[in-house]
Amino acid sequence: MPDNWSRDPAVLDTTVRGLVPRLHTVSSVAIPYARLPRRLRTHAERFPRWGDVASETPQSLLNLPKVGEAAVAALVDGAAEAVRVAHHIRSTGPMGIGPAVAFMLGRLDDYDRVLLARRVCALLPAPQHEVAAELGVDAASVGRNAPRAEARVRELLADPAHCEVLEYVEALRGRLGHLTTHVACNVELSAAGVEPGGTVAELLLYLAGPYTLRSSWIEVHTPDGRPGHDTIRAALDGLLEEHPAPTTHQLLDNLSAQGMTAGLAITYLREWTSLRCVGDVWVRWAEAGVGNRAEAALQVLGVPATSDTIDRILRSVGVTDISSLSRVMSVDKRFARASRHTWALRVWGLPEYTGVSDAIAQRIDAAGGRAKTVEVIRDVLAAIPDITESSVRSYMSTLAFVIEDGVVRRRTKADPWPPVQPLYTFRSGYRNGRNDVRVVFPADHDLLRGSGQAVPSSVAHAVGVTPGQRTTFTNTAGELTLYWDLTSTSGALIGSLRAQAAAVEAAFGDDVILVLRPSDASFEVIKAPKDEAPRARLQKLLGRRPKNPLTAMAASLECPPHLVVPTLQRRGEQRLLQLIGEPPG
Length: 585
Prior knowledge:
Radius of gyration: 46 Å
Distance between the termini: 147 Å
Number of domains: 7
Strand order of the largest sheet: 12-13-18-19
Shape: rod-shaped
């Protein structure tokens, strides 16, 4: 505006169109109210574009509420600047993104440029008091004016004169996506001739996002307000929910939809997720826990597998600290047996294997309570392919079932128990009175590692444990439970003797003599060394030093004296035979 224009009637009555030549060239451009006196903003709805004030005069504008001479002068000068900038852009053509940004920033004053470079657009904003000292103002002024500087630069970005900058930041946003590495971002900026880390670079990242630092990555908030990383993670979690072990191709497609290139996606997966690639599939991976890793291995396989197969999968990716894999899976609710030797994840919803006996019982029930043995064997083998026919026959012959003329059924209460064989017919069982029953177990690998032990049915019967029952015996060292499950192919069983064997210092090759006393449900464990003298061994088996070994052994075995020698021969008790000798004629 010319000097003293407010006192010149000719100027006051001239339209803005007349005061600003070629105003029509920017008639559709929005008026940049953020860079004009704030009082003019109250009229933004009435005059949104330069074409809307073209017919107004300085006098008509002065007649508006709260509009003074300074505001009118600023409005007319702003219109002239818009025309000048538009003409410059048309005459010069595309500048390149660096010069285009510099030209846009040149339309702001130094104060705004400092605020933008140091506070608003900086990836690492300077403290407010430092910026205030640089500008020579108080810190509160920086806080008030930073949002205004941001509004002004965004208003400039919307100006068609700066469409080159707008087009670049929109393309940059598409190439960077929601989340990218700082390095990848710098490569992208350098390709456009922009110096990474400079004011222009950070302004472009701000206008494209705004992007902010997240460790060595930069991210932008998505339209729903979530950080870019959270958006990408949500998309990834959705894929993993549907496909717990996705292929590399599936993962790359998922991340590509979030604006990530293949190389960047692999970097993201390795740096930001717990996923590990096994072959060509990816699974969530825990740094600790046998169960967690077994779950991951099954996700990789996608089908039930043996513990050996799971072990091989884990070792193939460098996991060597695997112990008690089967034991862990047997107590972890995430796993279920799919067959006798294979495991599955429970979430797969496969029929759970609960034993050959249950499979036999299910076939009997399905057939109405009675089924031909050959048909049961056929059906069970088809359902559980990793068992043998002999195994099915063994379980079918247990006390849980009754076989009559090639037809099998469940045992009922009306069915009598098979007769219990005499004690002397079983190796290792001895009875010394009503309250002293002894069983000899070899201290082999199974016993020393804690495996349960089979107990002769005559021994179980002697201590009052009948089929389907159990009794717990105690002593100061702990407890032992003797139980006789109807589905057991080994008859009665007793729990681990490992701790008791260790307590008496039994070593491999020794024997462990278990003494059961049913009257008070107590027990005792005695060590019988492998090189022990026959007389000492006999005393431990009988619980006393006998005057007549033959008659004492006959009473312990519950057999006539003339059967002692053949019984011991059958048992392989050669050292005892040397002591007992031949029975009298």
